[in-house]
Write a structure and sequence with these properties.
Layout lengths: L1 E7 L4 H12 L2 H4 L2 E8 L6 H7 L3 E4 L8 H13 L3 E6 L8 H6 L4 E5 L11 H7 L4 E8 L9 E8 L6 H26 L2
Parallel strand pairs: 1-2, 1-4, 2-3, 4-5
Antiparallel strand pairs: 5-6, 6-7
Helix pairs in contact: 1-7
The structure holds glycinamide ribonucleotide.
């Protein structure tokens, strides 16, 4: 069985979309894969409750308890590796990862970013897209490399930027598309690495 470990920091709606797809589309039978664990750097991440309710192991590792980014990432990797993951999925995990962490999971580490990469890596993507006068925005599923928000693109979704759009309204429009493309991209990744 291929284990998927999902990392979250907040609401975890992308994680929930992946868990629901795994259940609905019977990934255990069809892809020999399952969501084995959901880990968070924040104890108050709402997504942890959803994961528990779906019978998934959860864990919290508070980054503030570690002196350095390297120490946190090493402890996080140790926690992740307890599940021998075939795939590690970043789903709103709001931490910059060290090169050592990324190298350890090379080729089995995916992220979703709320912009049409390579446009707008980093934070505040929706406001930046509005400010730039973009007519379209979206989200990107990509392989994670040492360079922030780079790496091979696996999937994208495009939404219009509307007249008088606000960042929260655009974020919600993009997020609804994230929930479609991320589970699909994860399933395709798993099928391709059979
Ligand atoms: C999503 O929009 C995701 O693309 C974004 O955070 C949100 C998490 O929502 N990720 C990043 O900004 C990564 N730099 P969720 O917790 O409900 O899935």
């Amino acid at each position: 069985m291929k284990n998927i470990v999902i990392l979250i920091s907040g609401s975890g709606s992308n994680m929930a979309a992946i868990v629901r797809a795994a259940e609905h589309d019977r990934w255990a039978d069809r892809l020999n894969a399952r969501v084995a664990a959901v880990l968070s750097n924040r104890a108050d991440a709402q997504g942890l409750r959803f994961a528990k309710d779906h019978g998934i192991a959860t864990g919290v590792l508070d980054h503030k308890a570690f002196a350095t980014r390297e120490a946190f990432d090493a402890a996080l990797a140790a926690e992740i590796d307890r599940f021998s993951p075939a795939l590690v999925v970043l789903a709103g995990f709001m931490r910059i990862l060290t090169p050592a962490f990324v190298a350890h999971y090379a080729g089995r580490l995916l992220n979703i970013h709320p912009s049409l990469l390579p446009a707008f890596p980093g934070l505040n993507t929706h406001q930046r897209a509005i400010d730039a006068g973009c007519q379209f925005a979206g989200a990107t599923v990509h392989q994670v490399t040492a360079e922030l928000d780079h790496g091979d693109i696996l999937a994208q979704a495009v939404v219009p930027v509307l007249a008088h759009d606000t960042a929260p309204a655009l974020a919600a429009r993009v997020l609804s598309q994230e929930h479609l493309i991320y589970p699909r991209a994860v399933a395709q990744f798993l099928a391709a690495t059979a």
